Amino acid sequence: MKKAMVIVNPSSGKEEALDHVERIQRILKEKGYGVEVAQTEKELDATNYCQDACHNEFDLVVSLGGDGTLNETINGMVDQNHRPLLGIIPLGTVNDFARALNIPLDVEEAIDVLRSDRSKKVDIGRFNDRYFVNIVAAGALAEATYEVTQEQKTKFGPLAYIMEGMKTLTSNNSYPLRIEHDGEKWEGDSFLFLAALTNSTGGFEKLSPEAEVDDGAIHCYIVPQMNMIRLAGIVTAILRGELKNDSEVHYFTAQEVKLTSEDDLVTNVDGEEGDHLPVNLKIMPSHIDVIVK
Ligand SMILES: Nc1ncnc2c1ncn2[C@@H]1O[C@H](COP(=O)(O)OP(=O)(O)OP(=O)(O)O)[C@@H](O)[C@H]1O
């Protein structure tokens, strides 16, 4: 019999996760799975449960929680030889990965997707010795995301990040950056560096519209230091989904990127605080198989 593990974070969303477990179990049983349910209690539980599922050759792992639970689940399978199929039931505020994969944000509809026989192999990014699924950012926008409170997220949803980002964009602080990729080098004062794998960041789907989940590329954007008037142009370009077309923005795709700075600069990885520079990014093409509509 095929084996499925449902990893549930009871605290996600409006603490509704447990209400959905029974229906998920029913659907998976109909699909011929024996189902095990693993409830998280604290940080890294989802990673450990998922690692167990890999070691025990489970066929499917379902993440029922927010982006935090999903990222932890993915981190648990990325390094394993046996990687189960992944089901995503988004219960978070933002749900970037689900958005990028066109998985419904309505919970009942997302659960229905588990009936699907379709799946999509998606890219994962290596980030030093861990992984990312959406974006790595360094610079002002990265700093801004820490300022977003849970209250703002709940009240304004994805808009909270944009509002907070806009505030910081007007302060125009830049950092010296060195970016090496595939034998090329960019060096200079930069306002923001973004490395995106998907088109959805903070629930906003226009920051990196060219990034596809399965194109085998890291889409990079360098916004160099500039004056406030030009900066206003950048904001407009972001809102229009045309950041890459701005004449001052340096855009490239890469398989590997090395980011260093003489300043002490912290990164933002999938919306959470990440390592301080230097960091190495590397694409792992078509690495995880996700159930889709
Ligand atoms: N039983 C639990 N009670 C409280 N916190 C938990 C529990 N289990 C896991 N956690 C914590 O919940 C966090 C993940 O929460 P979640 O999956 O809702 O993601 P999120 O990033 O907070 O979502 P979003 O910000 O999009 O709403 C992890 O940091 C984990 O440590």
Automatic annotation (TrEMBL):
GO terms for molecular function: ATP binding; ATP-dependent diacylglycerol kinase activity; metal ion binding. GO terms for cellular component: plasma membrane. InterPro entries: ATP-NAD_kinase_N, Diacylglycerol/lipid_kinase, Diacylglycerol_kinase_cat_dom, Lipid_Phosphate_FormReg, NAD/diacylglycerol_kinase_sf, YegS/DAGK_C. Gene3D superfamilies: 2.60.200.40, Probable inorganic polyphosphate/atp-NAD kinase, domain 1. It comes from Halobacillus litoralis. Its cofactor is Mg(2+). The keyword RNA-binding does not apply. This is Sphingosine kinase. Keywords: ATP-binding, Kinase, Lipid biosynthesis, Lipid metabolism, Magnesium, Metal-binding, Nucleotide-binding, Phospholipid biosynthesis, Phospholipid metabolism, Transferase. One of its GO terms (biological process) is phospholipid biosynthetic process.
